[in-house]
Design a protein that fits this description.
The complex is a heterodimer of chains A (196) and B (584).
Chain A: H1 3-11, E1 16-24, H2 30-37, E2 53-59, E3 63-70, E4 89-95, H3 102-113, H4 116-119, E5 125-130, H5 140-146, E6 157-161, H6 170-195
Parallel strand pairs in A: 1-3, 1-4, 4-5, 5-6
Antiparallel strand pairs in A: 2-3
Chain B: H1 5-11, E1 14-20, E2 32-35, E3 44-49, E4 58-63, E5 66-72, E6 79-83, E7 94-99, E8 102-107, E9 110-116, H2 124-134, H3 140-153, H4 160-166, H5 170-180, E10 191-198, E11 208-214, E12 218-222, E13 229-234, E14 239-247, E15 251-258, E16 262-267, E17 275-278, E18 283-289, E19 292-297, E20 301-305, E21 311-316, E22 321-329, E23 334-341, E24 345-350, E25 353-359, E26 364-372, E27 375-383, E28 388-393, H6 423-434, H7 436-463, E29 477-484, E30 489-498, E31 508-513, E32 519-521, E33 525-528, E34 536-545, E35 554-561, E36 569-574, H8 579-583
Antiparallel strand pairs in B: 1-28, 2-3, 3-4, 4-5, 6-7, 7-8, 8-9, 10-11, 11-12, 12-13, 14-15, 15-16, 16-17, 18-19, 19-20, 20-21, 22-23, 23-24, 24-25, 26-27, 27-28, 29-30, 30-34, 31-33, 31-35, 32-34, 35-36
Helix pairs in contact in B: 2-3
The chains are: A alpha/beta (196), B alpha+beta (584).
Chain lengths: 196, 584
């Protein structure tokens, strides 16, 4: 880090970097959501199934997000756990129209929450009940019921209905996530100060 | 959730994705298929519903948990398959529904083509008779009599029309004849089973031919585009179930379970069966796993056969089989057989080993494993009560190689910790191997010497009458002695028994021999009265130890006979140390 960067950091000009994991089943819309969050000149037109994972970056008013956009295909899901340590926040995307695989999403979520790298950390989790544009899509309340989100007691979480194709619901979710992350940074720096 | 450990083990393998107990489905495994009907990578569930069995037959298409499309079928479906019939883009499979003598082909869920089986040879006599009826030469009753005659004697069976006519009441005959006499008679067979066979490429998306088995003991292979008969194979009996593998242009194998209880294996080269498997009871399920054929029989057994018909294994089942299906997961290299049982369970067998049991709320009558929606490991089950259940195999599910059924305990196969062979052991073994004869001889010599010494000692004892048992046949006696007391006074009890069968013994005396410096005895010599056979006579005498040195000696007892110098019996009594004296 150069002197200028440090200076910028002190002055609050440089934005704090946050690593975010984007998880969810295949075809739930992870890449589409991340694509929509990028500045409009960096967005791509055609989204293809992700192989392995992609790293994307986007900025909000106070934070700079580095997103690990993981592939949701069954054979790549075992890669997820290797990145749990780095993730300071998690975005979990659900295809609200795929009722059949809601159990699979729940199973993957439970595996995530019980993983030793996640279990004892207060990682904020943002859920996107995606594909609200599809006619038979379930409501975000119904999705949160099916996934038993009320059982998550030790982590801040939030569920957002979204339509990633048109970008609806995404800003709301990201605002919440930003608030949570900033909050935890402030808390951490406070505790460091009090230790000194 | 469930409390039993077995149920927990199962819930760790399967997720309950969907269960509708009142889906109003009446179908079997042969009428269920999974296919990507829209070309969007999402498989639909296609079901040929038998309705009530006589009406309301439907072709139903499910997407996810919801019924997406429904169209009426004209007749009962006997089989349903999806297949790619051409190379047009997008690659959307067609659906073939077999019912009666027809195959209805649907594309994009719309009727596309109807294939009719070729009609069979007609009895010339029958045709003649109907010709006469048409011209009015014979009346309905005569027609009936003639047809009955033909039915009983002719080689070629009657047509359906004649058979129906024979079953009519007399008053209905006139009308039936006038209604049907103008049409030519036809004899048709019906389809019993249907399958698909790749035409020339083994790829997943290769064009497939339809393979159909008919009631007339034939198997037809149809061209996928023109629906012409490419090949006709004949069987000794009517086929009921079929498994097809290979490619039509290269090499194929059709395994057919027939109504006569045999399984025939047809190959490309010959139109007659190549191999035959004769089963002990009727087959109720036939699936292929890899290169082997697994057959479920009516006697609640599962058999594994090679593709040449050699039996590999047998597994006993707890209940009758209702249906069977293969479970093929190429991404994990896992292949197994799903067996639906009448006790509301679905068993998963990998070879003869039961690797998983799924409990169902109702008897499962239709099974299909494959890609449904976007999930590769989906298991579709339909139940006797009309329910539809979808289970999804967990990503983390692992199947034990080991048999879940009870067998020998695992401890049996644990190797014992046998110590290594030492140098001494090896040397000894070598020596034994080299000098085996000499060692054997030395051993035999020593053994003979021991025997000789033992025999000599025995003879000596007998000669000196040293034993407490008399060997004299004239006076068989038994003696034992008991010493009581702590000393210096002891009581000596002699128990004498006559062991003869009936003769009493007379004129016996007892004498003691002892060291006079150590002991004194009140009666060192006494006579024994007559000994009645069998009874034990106790004789008591008192011994006093006169020494105060705390030593003991042996007192010898002799049983003597009047007029003989050698004693009959001798007993040695080891006297205890006199403790009473030592205390003083």
């Amino acid at each position: 880090m150069g002197l200028f960067d440090k200076l910028a950091g002190w002055l609050g000009l440089k934005k704090k970097e946050v690593n975010v994991l984007c998880l969810g089943l295949d075809n739930s819309g992870k890449t589409t959501i991340i694509n929509k969050l990028k500045p409009s000149n960096a967005q791509t037109q055609d989204i293809v199934p992700t192989i392995g994972f992609n790293i994307e970056k986007f900025k909000t008013s106070s934070l700079s997000f580095t997103v690990f956009d993981m592939s949701g295909q069954g054979r790549y899901r075992n890669l997820w756990e290797h990145y749990y340590k780095e993730g300071q926040a998690i975005i979990f995307v659900i295809d609200s129209a795929d009722k059949l695989r809601m159990v699979v999403a729940k199973e993957e979520l439970d595996t995530l929450l019980n993983h030793p790298d996640v279990k004892h950390r207060r990682v904020p989790i943002l859920f996107f009940a995606n594909k609200m544009d599809v006619r038979e899509a379930l409501s975000s309340v119904k999705v949160s019921q099916l996934l038993c989100l009320e059982n998550i007691k030790d982590k801040p979480w939030h569920i957002c209905a979204s339509d990633a194709l048109r970008g609806e619901g995404l800003p709301e979710g990201v605002d919440w996530l930003q608030g949570r992350v900033v909050n935890s940074i402030v808390l951490k720096s406070k505790s460091i100060v009090s230790l000194h | 959730m469930s409390s039993g450990t077995e149920m927990n083990a199962e819930s760790s393998k399967w997720l309950d994705a969907h269960y509708d107990p009142v889906a109003n489905l009446y179908t079997f495994s042969s009428c269920i298929d999974l296919a990507d009907l829209n070309g969007d990578g999402e498989n639909r569930l296609v079901i040929g519903d038998l309705g009530t069995g006589s009406s309301n037959m439907k072709l139903k298409v499910y997407r996810g948990t919801a019924l997406m499309n429904e169209s009426t079928l004209l007749d009962l479906p006997t089989g349903l398959v999806s297949f790619l019939m051409d190379l047009h883009e997008p690659r959307i499979p067609a659906i073939a529904v077999a019912s009666g003598p027809f195959i209805y082909v649907y594309k994009n869920l719309r009727p596309y083509f109807k294939f009719t089986l070729p009609s069979l040879e007609i009895n010339a006599l029958e045709q003649d008779v109907w010709q006469q009826a048409r011209e009015g030469q014979i009346d309905p009753l005569a027609l009936k009599e003639l047809l009955e005659g033909i039915r009983d004697t002719a080689d070629v069976p009657l047509s359906v029309r004649s058979l129906r006519y024979l079953g009519l009441e007399t008053q209905d005959m006139e009308e039936f004849v006038s209604l049907h006499k103008q049409q030519p008679i036809r004899r048709q067979t019906v389809i019993t089973c249907i399958g698909t066979l790749k035409k020339s490429s083994a790829d997943e998306d290769g064009v497939s031919c339809l393979v159909i088995g008919t009631e007339s003991n034939d198997v037809y292979i149809l061209d996928p585009e023109a629906f012409t008969i490419l090949s006709k194979l004949s069987l000794p009996s009517a086929p009921t179930m079929m498994d097809v593998t290979g490619q039509f242009d290269v090499e194929f194998r059709i395994t057919v379970a027939c109504r006569n209880g045999n399984i025939y294996i047809l190959r490309r080269e010959s139109s007659k069966p190549k191999y035959c498997i004769e089963l002990s009871s009727h087959p109720v399920g036939l699936v292929r796993v890899g290169k082997n054929v697994v057959v479920g029989c009516a006697e609640e057994r599962l058999y594994g056969f090679t593709q040449k018909g050699k039996k590999l294994w047998t597994a006993q089942l707890p209940a009758p089989i209702t249906t069977m299906a293969t479970m093929d997961l190429p991404t994990r290299g896992f292949q197994a057989v799903l067996v639906g049982l009448a006790n509301c369970e679905v068993h998963l067998y990998r070879d003869k080993n039961l690797v998983s049991t799924i409990k169902s709320p109702d008897v499962v009558t239709g099974l299909r494993f494959g890609r449904y929606g976007r999930e590769d490991g989906a298991l579709v089950m339909t139940t006797k009560g009309g329910g539809l259940a979808v289970k999804i195999l967990k990503r983390t599910a692992a199947f034990d190689e080991r048999d879940a059924a009870p067998g020998p305990p695992p401890a049996q196969s644990v190797r014992l910790n046998v110590p290594k062979k030492t140098k001494l052991y090896v040397d000894q073994t070598l020596r034994e191997r080299e000098h085996a004869t000499a060692m054997h001889r030395a051993f035999q010599m020593d053994l003979s010497r021991v025997r000789l010494a033992a025999a000599q000692a025995y003879v000596r004892a007998l000669e000196a009458s040293l034993t407490p048992m008399s060997a004299n046949p004239a006076a068989p006696l038994k003696l034992n002695a008991v010493v009581q007391g702590l000393g210096p006074a002891f009581k000596l009890t002699l128990n004498v028994q006559n062991t003869a069968a009936s003769r009493p013994i007379l004129n016996l005396t007892v004498s003691f021999l002892y060291d006079g410096g150590l002991y004194s005895m009140r009666t060192p010599y006494f006579r024994i009265p007559l000994l009645v056979p069998g009874l034990v006579y106790p004789f008591e005498t008192l011994v006093e130890c006169t020494s105060d040195k705390g030593i003991s000696d042996v007192i010898k007892v002799f049983v003597l006979h009047d007029g003989k110098t050698a004693p009959l019996l001798t007993a040695h009594i080891n006297m205890p140390v006199s403790e009473g004296l030592a205390l003083e």
